[in-house]
Structures are given as structure tokens and as C-alpha cells.
TrEMBL record:
Cell location: Cell inner membrane; Cell membrane
Main location as per UniProt: membrane
Protein name: Amino acid ABC transporter permease
Organism this protein belongs to: Castellaniella hirudinis
Record-annotated ABC transmembrane type-1 domain positions: 17-202
Domain of life, per lineage: Bacteria
InterPro entries: AA_ABC_transptr_permease_3TM (IPR010065), ArtM/GltK/GlnP/TcyL/YhdX-like (IPR043429), MetI-like (IPR000515), MetI-like_sf (IPR035906)
Transmembrane segments: 20-43, 184-205
Pfam families with a match to the protein in the record: BPD_transp_1
Membrane topology: Multi-pass membrane protein
Length: 230
């Protein structure tokens, strides 16, 4: 075992890492969108919309991600809905984490004092402006640490997509270990790469959390602080 061997093994693993990052960023972006939509559906005044959102959340949280990936990739293919492993993996991760983020967003919004809603209504501030200027900045500060934890879980859970033949980092490691019989070295490298990616993401969220704590960092933060005194 020497540096040349490690460098040789790193080539396919780094290629797999590119797919892992692609899965992470695409799923994270879509999961935030799904989470926000579902969150507002849960807070809707219409019972049917609230019930549908709650049903989706309960089904997703009540079944394993692995089962969901198999259902999307293999199950839907039986009824003619065929998609690539990457698309199926992205969809599975999006739906899974979107459900968890919906509850996280809901808890963040509901953590805002009701007096701020009343004060903004009294001042004639429209709903969208109220969300952008008052509610979301404060809610984001409240949930940001938990959001970072979900990001770490997402990039690690992307390894499950290996079961539907996506050549991401874990799948690349499995194939390399099977062809070289160097399981200890290969999986040590795989673990090191995951650790590096998680460390970078963790650092980015720590920096973001620190910036969000700076008064006036978010447009309207000073305004929201005024409402908190209302």
C-alpha cells in the first residue's frame, strides 16, 4: 500500500463524489421548495389542504427511505413510470427530506410571537411582505442549526441511492472494493471523503449561523426587532 495506490483508488471515488454532491445539491434545493409548500399547506385555513399535507408527511416519516427509493425506482416502473437511477434517487431524497423540513419550517414559523402578526396587520403590511420582512428572518434564525443537521443527514443518506445503481461515492467504493479486494483501504477512503464533505457543510452552516446573528444582516432584521417590541 503506497501513495500511488491511494491516488489510483481516489480517481473513481472522486468521480463518485461528484455524483454525490450533485444528488445533495439538487435534492436539498428541491426539498426546501417541497418543505415550504407543504409547510404552508399545513398552516392553511382549508381543512382538505391541511389533511393532504399531513397525510404526505405521516406516510414519508412512517416508512424507511430505502423502501421509498425501491418504490420509486422499481415499483413505479411496473406501471410504466420509468426513470433513471439519478432522477429516482433525487426524487426519493427530495420527498423524504421535504416532509421533515416541512415540520421544521412549521415549528420555526409558529415559534414567532403572535403579537408580531397582530402588529403587522394593524400597520397594513401585506402577507407576503410580512413573511419576507418579519417572519422568515426570525424563523430562519431559530431553525438554522437544525437545518444544518438535516443537510449533514442528507449527504450521508445519499449513500442509500447506491442500491438503485447510481454511481455515487458509496457505489463507486463498493465496485472498487469488489475489483481490488482492498475493502479496508477503499472504505477508509470513502469514509474520509464523506467526513471531508460533511466538515465543509458543517463549517458553511456555522458561518451562516454566525452571520444571521449579526444585527441587520438580513434585510429587514432591524424592522423585525421593532415588531418584537410591539
Amino acid at each position: 500500500m503506497d501513495f500511488d495506490t491511494i491516488r489510483l483508488y481516489l480517481t473513481p471515488l472522486l468521480e463518485g463524489s461528484v455524483w454525490t454532491l450533485a444528488l445533495f445539491f439538487s435534492s436539498a434545493f428541491l426539498a426546501v421548495a417541497v418543505g415550504l409548500i407543504t409547510c404552508f399547506a399545513r398552516l392553511s385555513s382549508r381543512r382538505a389542504i391541511r389533511t393532504a399535507a399531513k397525510f404526505y408527511i405521516e406516510v414519508i416519516r412512517g416508512t424507511p427511505l430505502l423502501v421509498q427509493l425501491f418504490f420509486i425506482y422499481y415499483g413505479l416502473a411496473e406501471v410504466g413510470i420509468v426513470m433513471s437511477g439519478f432522477v429516482a434517487g433525487t426524487l426519493g431524497l427530495t420527498l423524504n427530506f421535504g416532509a421533515y423540513l416541512a415540520e421544521l419550517f412549521r415549528s420555526g414559523i409558529q415559534s414567532i410571537d403572535s403579537g408580531q402578526y397582530e402588529a403587522s396587520r394593524a400597520l397594513g403590511i401585506r402577507t407576503l411582505q410580512r413573511l419576507r420582512v418579519i417572519i422568515i428572518p426570525q424563523a430562519l434564525r431559530n431553525i438554522f442549526p437544525a437545518l444544518g443537521n438535516y443537510a449533514l443527514v442528507l449527504i450521508k443518506d445519499s449513500s442509500l441511492v447506491a442500491v438503485i445503481s447510481v454511481s455515487e461515492l458509496m457505489r463507486s467504493g463498493e465496485m472498487l472494493a469488489a475489483s481490488t479486494f482492498q475493502s479496508l483501504l477503499v472504505y477508509t477512503l470513502v469514509g474520509a471523503i464523506y467526513f471531508l464533505m460533511c466538515s465543509v457543510i458543517s463549517y458553511a452552516f456555522r458561518r451562516g449561523e454566525k452571520n444571521l446573528s449579526i444585527p441587520g444582516y438580513w434585510d429587514g432584521a432591524s424592522e423585525s426587532s421593532d415588531f418584537s417590541k410591539a
